[in-house]
Amino acid sequence: MQPFTKVSGTAAPLPQGNVDTDVIMPKQFLKGITREGLARGCFYDLRYDAAGNERPEFILNQPGYRQSVFLAVGPNFGCGSSREHAVWGLRQLGVRALIGSSFASIFQDNCFRNGLLPVSLTPDQARHVQAVCSDPAHNTLEVDLTAQAILLHGGARIDFDIDPLRKDDLLSGRDAIAATLQYAADIESFEREHWKAQPWLNPLLRVP
Amino acid sequence: MMNAPAAKPATLYEKIVEAHTIRELDATHVLLYVDRHVLNEYTSPQAFAGLRQAGRRVSRPEASLGVVDHVNPTAPLRSRLVPDPQAARQVDYFEENCREFGIECFGILDPRQGIEHVVVPEQGIALPGMVIACGDSHTTTYGAFGVLGFGVGTSEVEHVLATQTLVYERLKNMRIVVRGSLPLGVTAKDIVMSVIRRLGAAGATGYAVEFDGPTVGALDLAGRMTLCNMIVEAGARGALIAPDESAFRFLHGRARAPRGAHWDRAIEHWRGLHTDPDAAFQRELQLEASQIAPLVSWGTSPEQVIGIGDRIPDPADEVDTTRRGGMSRALGYMDLQPGTPIRGIKIDRAFIGSCTNGRLEDLRDAAKILAGRRVAAGVRAMVVPGSTQVRRDAEAEGIDQVFISAGFEWRQSGCSMCLAMNDDVLESGERCASSTNRNFEGRQGRGGRTHLMSPAMVAAAALAGHIADVRDFQGER
Fold it and tell me: How far apart are the C-alpha atoms of A24 and A78, rounded to whole Å?
């Protein structure tokens, strides 16, 4: 996983609430067996019309926003389906952080697992970032995870909170499975006790 | 002499998490043991590929089950052939992966195939007190049995495969108490839709929800599964109902349920699985069932719901600007005007199925409304049983004939038009009365318009040709 420390770039406002993962990555892009090739699918119905032409009204198709590395999003972003394809697609589109007020929980976990930083601000702060970014002359900002701060155009600073464990994951880009496997002995002894207390839970004892 | 301090009163959720905690990782995270893991063909391929790439094995293949459900066709004649080459590749790769890593898999032709969340309880795999993870958000369904089930992304699927654990953040506790008797025509679907309307689409984010109260206790397990399944649309990452005698009766004798001495010990243990009387919930919600009407969604979020007697709301009346924007956008997408009565809106399609409402009880509910009647001209209606077993059971009761005589297509099982990953798709502009769980833009097909409701309400709409009140089709004829 690509670590996230400090990233600068342009941000696009996407203020509507409850943007679901079906909208972020529609069904026709879910039929692959790899993580690749999802950039085109990202926000497909919003970016392209039925004939596959760009919709000029969509923010990411507009000058000054096409290369956005941040999205300033509305509340409950990423709700609905657990499809991690939504996060893979955002990353492949070049998005490094989402700045909003709340994220759906499975989606947020998926972000942390893929080096996509979800920044949770207060609703007022989130609306402020959206407003600042609505002017393409002012939509360049910096997100510094180490300092837990966003630096807006002109130097205004917004501090944010983040789960310390997830912060470490993002900063280090570490392999979560390897990190858990250091507890392999604990897992084994837990399992033994767990199955001793509730033997019907042991899948190895299944009556054929 | 001092008495030992009593254990702190705990919720059922806290007890299950505690019983699966291998170690605390920090103040909020634990390493959580996962009893069972359910896999499907579309969220697992990259997880298996990741294992291969890292040279890792599956830690407990016997604790995982694969089920093909999302991409398979539901044409009445079952075939192993999947016409869509990409979907076919997914199914093949899934079966290959399960074989190679030693995981049991219910393929398309397996008599136990079906939607994973219908199959797992049906087989008696979900047992009270378990933790079950699956790469699908509707895994909360298993809460009906006092199982902590939750959806995870593909990276976490890989993590469970490799370690049988998850790095898990403890949730807050919410209790939803439902009292009073359900009026005629009102179902578990209407209860959960009314809860989502009250909480909003993010109202339960960060919470595990426990459903409680006499109305919940009086629901059968199918109804309880509907509640726990769909509360994820309010953002809940876990749902629980304390297991009781009716849950035990449901499980007794099922293929994978414990037997003999194990069953006796299990029951004894399960009877202790409930929230302590003084346990603290950070949020409580009370609901009076007699006040609930049959509900219909009008917009593109499951929180955008009104009673069958109501009119489409006006965004101008909404003070919250984000919410108002969402309402306006939804009205445009749904091609609806504020003030229009929801009842009477013409439909093109009717769909009964999904992990929310594709069980035998749901089909029976719809069949009661359809018996001796015909679907309105111009409406294409289909029923997709939640599992192959549900289909067989329905056929044994003659329910298939009720659907067929009414003009419904009687299809094979799968997720089908709930998310339209297979060839069951709405055309752009088509309006569908649907017993599913999500009315998102494009969910059932690009430009398709979904109205969520109970299976009986879908049946009523199919007969009327427009959104209708199921109570007009009940009782004396």
Answer: 8
* Strand A97-100 versus strand A117-120 pairing type: parallel
> Are residue A72 and residue A109 in the same domain, yes or no?
yes
* Residue B227 covered by a domain: no
- Looking at residue B378, the DSSP 8-state letter turns out to be T
Chain B CB contacts of A180 under 8 Å are 31, 159, 162-163, 165, 167
Q: In this complex, is the C-beta atom of B235 within 8 Å of any C-beta atom belonging to chain A?
A: yes
The candidate with the shortest Cα–Cα distance to B434, out of B411, B426, A21, is B426
B416 vs B412: CA distance, rounded Å: 9
Cβ-defined contact of B153 to A87 (cutoff 8 Å): yes
Task: Indicate whether B371 belongs to any domain.
Answer: yes
Give me the pLDDT at residue A65, please: 98
Shortest distance between the Cα of B236 and any Cα of chain A, in A, equals 8
Q: Are residues A106 and A28 in the same domain?
A: yes
Report if residue B213 sits inside a domain: no
Looking at beta carbons, which residues of chain B come within 8 Å of A87? 153
The beta-carbon neighbor of A183 closest among B23, B169, B442 is B23
Q: Do A83 and B130 touch (CB under 8 A)?
A: no
A52 Cβ under 8 Å from any chain B Cβ: no
B231 φ, ψ (degrees, to nearest 5): -65, -15
Q: If you count residue pairs, one on A and one on B, with CB atoms under 8 Å apart, how many are there?
A: 191
Number of domains in chain A: 2
CATH code for position B318: 3.30.499.10
Question: Which among B304, B303, B283, B306 is positioned nearest to B293, based on CA atoms?
Answer: B306
Question: CB–CB of A91/A107 below 8 Å?
Answer: no
Q: Read off the amino acid at residue A7.
A: V
Same domain membership, residue A189 and residue A143: no
Range 136-195 of A in CB contact (< 8 A) with B = 163-165, 175-177, 180-181, 183-184, 186-187, 190-191, 194
Q: Which domain holds residue A64?
A: 6-174
Compute the mean pLDDT over every residue in chain A, rounded to the nearest whole number: 96
What CATH number is associated with residue A159?
Answer: 3.20.19.10
**Domain edge (last residue) among B106, B133, B167:** B167
- All residues of chain B having their beta carbon less than 8 Å from the beta carbon of residue A23 are 440-442
Q: Average pLDDT per run of 10 along chain B, which is 477 residues long?
A: 70 98 97 98 98 98 98 96 96 98 98 98 98 98 98 98 98 98 97 98 98 98 98 98 98 97 97 97 98 98 98 97 96 98 98 98 98 98 98 98 98 98 97 98 97 98 98 80
pLDDT, residue A205, reads 84
Q: What's the rounded Cα separation, in Å, for the pair A127 and A120?
A: 12
Domain check: are A115 and A142 in the same one?
yes
- Residue A208 — very low, low, confident or very high, per pLDDT cuts 50/70/90? very low
**Residues of A with CB below 8 A from B265's CB?**
198-200
* Residue B370 domain boundaries: 295-473
Are residues B162 and B300 located together in one domain of the fold?
Answer: no
